[in-house]
């Protein structure tokens, strides 16, 4: 029996002692904090092994020496005050012994004070944006694993899905502070070697920090389910010496200056249609295909199709505006800082001529720089006429109301105020709904139970038009419903409300016009 107990003790204590060299154990990392986390992990492991030795030792001893075949007679007792106290006090002391080092480690992990370098980390579907404070250096970091490896036509490397085009470069021996946020959904920036894992929430700033001890390349990834391409959002950090880091900063600033000069030069360049289509296809496959699909078909109810899309078939200026500035309230990002004017011109040209769209439009970098206005002056601008407010408002309320009415009338072009037929409203409304509303309420208006309400037979849709307009224009506080007054024009707002009130069997017969939107709330 003694040999058995000794064997158990050796087994239970040999496991944690050998764990440091086991590939399945937690790694020690390359920062002071990661070392503390590793030590805390090993302390807890030792405690658990000690508890295991005691508990299983007593169990095995009892089964051997107190079995029925040896004539053991069960004891007849109800309870013991000493035992009750023991099994309450001992676990309490064990928990205290575990909590003290754990609390010290957690406090150290949450202390970003006295940082020597601050970096803003912004997550978006599906890339990371890094901005170095006070250094005028920023860039996007995207997955660079070849598509052939992802599709399985080539052998996968050891760094499969853990390689990027531009890694985050950090100096060793400096405390680096991270400010985490997101452009769209919740992401999580995670590098195991640093013991850093922090959520990036839209509209919030979370803090983390690290101080790297060793030069090297360290890999991680987004640790939050952030969408269909969650697994294609890696993190790669290059830790370099302080001298190399300073040189890297100088090189990046020079590259930025060269890129600006090249962008200026590109405004006077004219690429052929074939050159634009070839470059546009590369940009589209690298930046757009994840949402809109390689064949441009999109994902119904989530990402709109680009085949015969109203955006594609509409004005070039409107198409460029969405690519450059994005579309608030949707997953469409702004690519003004992600792509050059030439790349934007190429991808717009490609989208307008691929998959049978065949618009024949050829967009140049100069068109992008001018906000989409064609190089020849034959096309009219889609931008509304600027409105000038009076220097001083009149003192009386009626006069103030008249001034406001005049401003509204001036700000609303005549074409927008024209009444449209039901068919025209429904056609426009469907386009607006699919691009701005379907991501939440679904293409069929069924919503997502518990998250986004259905619009089919909804009390809001079937109720008064004024109430429906109020929610669409100003949103609904306390919910995910945002106000679209600054996103959609009065005509678009009227069209989408008309569509919602008459689609999917709602059939209210209501035809809302732009004048109803402008006059809402008066």
Automatic annotation (TrEMBL):
The chain crosses the membrane at residues 43-64, 85-103. InterPro entries: CcO_II, CcO_II-like_C, Copper_CuA, Cupredoxin, Cyt_c-like_dom, Cyt_c-like_dom_sf, Cyt_c_oxidase_su2, Cyt_c_oxidase_su2_TM_dom. Gene3D superfamilies: 1.10.287.90, Cupredoxins - blue copper proteins (2.60.40.420), Cytochrome c-like domain (1.10.760.10). It is a multi-pass membrane protein. Its cofactor is Cu cation. Its EC number is 7.1.1.9. SUPFAM superfamilies: Cupredoxins, Cytochrome c, Cytochrome c oxidase subunit II-like, transmembrane region. Residues 370-382 have a biased composition (Low complexity). Coiled coil: none annotated. Residues 1-19 form the signal peptide. Pfam families: COX2, COX2_TM, Cytochrome_CBB3. Binds a copper A center. Residues 361-396 are annotated as: Disordered. It catalyses: 4 Fe(II)-[cytochrome c] + O2 + 8 H(+)(in) = 4 Fe(III)-[cytochrome c] + 2 H2O + 4 H(+)(out). Residues 114-251 form the Cytochrome oxidase subunit II copper A binding domain. It is found in: Cell membrane; Membrane. Residues 18-113 form the Cytochrome oxidase subunit II transmembrane region profile domain. Its main location: membrane. Subunits I and II form the functional core of the enzyme complex. Electrons originating in cytochrome c are transferred via heme a and Cu(A) to the binuclear center formed by heme a3 and Cu(B). Belongs to the cytochrome c oxidase subunit 2 family. NCBIfam families: CoxB (TIGR02866). This is Cytochrome c oxidase subunit 2. The lineage of its organism: Bacteria, Pseudomonadati, Pseudomonadota, Gammaproteobacteria, Alteromonadales.
């Amino acid at each position: 029996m003694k040999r058995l107990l000794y064997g158990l003790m050796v087994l239970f204590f040999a496991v944690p002692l050998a764990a440091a060299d086991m590939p399945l154990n937690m790694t020690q990392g390359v920062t002071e904090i990661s070392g503390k986390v590793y030590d805390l992990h090993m302390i807890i492991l030792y405690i658990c092994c000690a508890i295991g030795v005691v508990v299983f030792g007593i169990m095995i001893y009892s089964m051997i020496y107190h079995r029925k075949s040896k004539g053991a007679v069960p004891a007849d007792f109800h309870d013991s005050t000493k035992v009750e106290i023991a099994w309450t006090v001992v676990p309490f002391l064990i928990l205290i012994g575990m909590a003290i080092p754990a609390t010290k480690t957690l406090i150290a992990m949450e202390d970003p004070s006295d940082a020597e370098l601050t970096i803003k980390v912004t997550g978006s579907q599906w890339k990371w944006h890094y901005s170095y404070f006070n250094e005028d250096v920023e860039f996007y970091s995207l997955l660079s694993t070849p598509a052939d490896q992802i599709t399985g036509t080539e052998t996968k490397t050891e760094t499969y899905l853990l390689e990027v085009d531009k890694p985050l470069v950090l100096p060793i021996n400096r405390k680096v502070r991270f400010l985490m946020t997101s452009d769209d959904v919740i992401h999580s920036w995670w590098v195991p070697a640093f013991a850093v894992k922090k959520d990036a929430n839209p509209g919030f700033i979370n803090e983390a920090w690290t101080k790297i001890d060793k030069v090297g390349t360290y890999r991680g990834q987004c640790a939050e389910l952030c969408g269909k391409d969650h697994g294609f959002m890696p993190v790669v950090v290059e830790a370099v010496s302080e001298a190399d880091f300073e040189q890297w900063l100088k090189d990046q600033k020079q590259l930025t200056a060269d890129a600006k000069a090249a962008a200026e030069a590109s405004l006077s360049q004219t690429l052929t249609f074939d050159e634009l289509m070839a470059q546009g296809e590369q940009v589209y496959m690298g930046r757009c295909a994840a949402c809109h699909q390689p064949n441009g078909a999109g994902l119904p109810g989530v990402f709109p199709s680009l085949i015969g899309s109203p955006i594609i078939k509409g004005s070039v200026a409107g198409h460029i505006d969405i690519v450059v500035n994005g579309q608030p309230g949707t997953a469409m990002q702004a690519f003004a800082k992600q792509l050059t004017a030439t790349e934007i011109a190429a991808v717009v040209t490609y989208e307008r001529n691929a998959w049978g769209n065949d618009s024949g439009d050829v967009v140049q970098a100069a068109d992008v720089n001018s906000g989409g206005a064609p190089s020849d002056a034959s096309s009219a601008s889609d931008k509304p006429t600027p409105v000038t407010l009076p220097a001083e408002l009149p003192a009386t309320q009626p006069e103030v109301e008249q001034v406001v009415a005049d401003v509204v009338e001036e700000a609303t072009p005549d074409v927008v105020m024209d009444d449209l037929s039901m068919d025209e409203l429904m056609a426009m409304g469907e386009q607006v709904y699919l691009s701005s509303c379907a991501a939440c309420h679904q293409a069929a208006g069924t919503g997502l139970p518990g998250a986004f309400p259905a619009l089919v037979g909804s009390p809001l849709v079937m109720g008064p038009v004024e109430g429906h307009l109020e929610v669409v224009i100003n949103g609904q506080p306390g919910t995910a419903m945002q106000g679209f007054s600054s996103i959609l024009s009065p005509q678009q707002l009227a069209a989408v409300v008309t569509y919602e009130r008459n689609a999917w069997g709602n059939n209210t017969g209501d035809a809302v016009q732009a004048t109803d939107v402008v006059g809402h709330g008066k």
